[in-house]
Specification:
The protein has two helices and four strands; from the N terminus they run βαββαβ. By secondary structure, it is α+β, with helices and mostly antiparallel strands. The mean pLDDT is 94.
Length: 68
């Protein structure tokens, strides 16, 4: 699983970076940069899902990682 941003919906509120600081930070324009690494623990998945629910634009989702 991984956290993904839909930049067509994101407006740079930054709530995701507050709620999921372990894997999200803001770029120089105030938009999130999400670490693409797998969410490899239950606590990370819970915090990522909390950020998804809190996003005011619905720009975040937790997706299942595709095997390569």
């Amino acid at each position: 699983m991984r956290l993904v941003v839909d930049f067509t919906r994101c407006r740079g509120h930054g709530i995701c970076t507050v709620l999921f600081a372990e894997r999200a930070e803001l770029d120089e324009w105030g938009f999130p940069v999400i670490d693409p690494a797998d969410l490899d623990s239950a606590p990370l998945v819970r915090r990522a899902r909390r950020a998804v629910v809190a996003c005011p634009r619905g720009a975040l989702s937790v997706e299942t990682s595709e095997p390569r």
